[in-house]
Amino acid sequence: MEDFDDSTKTRFTTSLRKTISLRPYQLEALTAITDAETKGIRRQLVALPTGTGKTVIFSHVVSSRPGRALVLAHREELIGQAAEKILTVNPAASIGVIKADRNELHRQIVVASVQTFARESRLSRIDSSGFTTVIVDEAHHAAADSYRRILDHFRCFGEGGPLTVGFTATPERADEKGLGEIFSEIVYRQDILTMMQAGYLCDLRAIGVSLQADFNSLHSRHGDFIDAEASDMLMAANAPAHAVSAYREHAFGRKTLLFTPTVELAHRMVEAFIVKGIPAEALSGETPADERRGILRRLKSGMTRLVANCAVLTEGFDEPGIECVIVARPTCSKPLYVQMIGRGTRLFPGKDDCLILDLVGATTRHDLMTAASIFSVESKPNQTIVQAVRQRGTAARNRKPHKAGSSRKQSIFSANGTRTGSAQERTGLSSA
């Protein structure tokens, strides 16, 4: 994503369409935000899966409300994405960016890097009194001290403070540090399975790749396996060779992301793929920005078929052409796992499904996250997750006779995508 500046805006506005057709659930989310604000709920959380257009929703929020708006972004890539989407919704928007070398404080809508904006030297220079809306993207990070400093400065916890809305695909945190101190209530929520069943996300297929590794011996720290231990165990089990073999058998030619616990393992994976003639590259947080953009451009174009990464592309990466995700990063964190497989759930022309290759140990560990454990199904290689869930439901109904007078909860969407069910069913309203 190139830097968003006035010249970018000029080029962008020449080709954009001035309206975005909102999906039914996006309209529901906007209604839920308005209804909750009417009830006095000022700190709200919206939970929607990766690829369902959270940026579109908050772009409508900031474009439709009076006063100034602040959008907080966790990663630099998200700054450009947010600014461009807001401009698509409102071509006349005055958008300023705050990040390392930019400090555009006086625009109507300010999109800010949390890492930069949380510094006292930046934060103290902006008057918070004119801001009526604060958006927190990737809001599962909002319990961090850097976010708290910004939210405190903008009076988000005070009486009469701005409407504060967080957006996230994973309202749970891996470190169990609750978001209840930040947000009062989840005002709208849908999960990844519901969105796949409704046709708004790509269906998944999942295959477990068994390794001669005892994951039961892994130790945990801060709610997840210790990265170095996991990496050593995977290398000892020759995971790179197994990953290449599984890719060639089940996913050959698919545009692929591969996740690892360490940078070293990401590079070893790439070496194994290249030896077999598969164009692959690795990136990490240490990869220079220009080099990183080049790698992702080559992935997008198809010159590179696989990119291995360590803790980089779980957020802020939008490439709908991804058709395979290799999880070579053992985790007991459901939020992290959902973020990883979510990179492959966006719809794309000619893409029927996304294949998940889970590298698993020879022994079963109950807290290890896999597609099977997330969706509570054991799908066959040629069966998608939605098909497996449907089959499970059919089997359950056949085992339990239908009682007179009972009724099943309706899907939130009918076959044509219009809303069904009660308001409570549609919103999934729950306390944070």
Strand content: 15-25%
Specify the helix fraction band.
25-40%
> What shape does the CA trace take?
globular
State Rg: 22 Å
What is the average per-residue confidence, as pLDDT, rounded to a whole number?
87
Distance, first to last CA: 33 Å
The top level CATH class name of the largest domain: Alpha Beta
Question: Structural class, from secondary structure content?
Answer: alpha/beta
* Structural domains: how many: 2
In CATH, the topology of the largest domain is named Rossmann fold
Number of helices: 16
**Judging by the overall fold, what is the CATH architecture of the largest domain?**
3-Layer(aba) Sandwich
Q: What strand order characterises the main sheet?
A: 4-3-5-2-6-7-1-8-17
CATH homologous superfamily placement of the largest domain: P-loop containing nucleotide triphosphate hydrolases
Number of beta-strand segments: 17
Low-pLDDT windows of residues: 7-18, 405-432
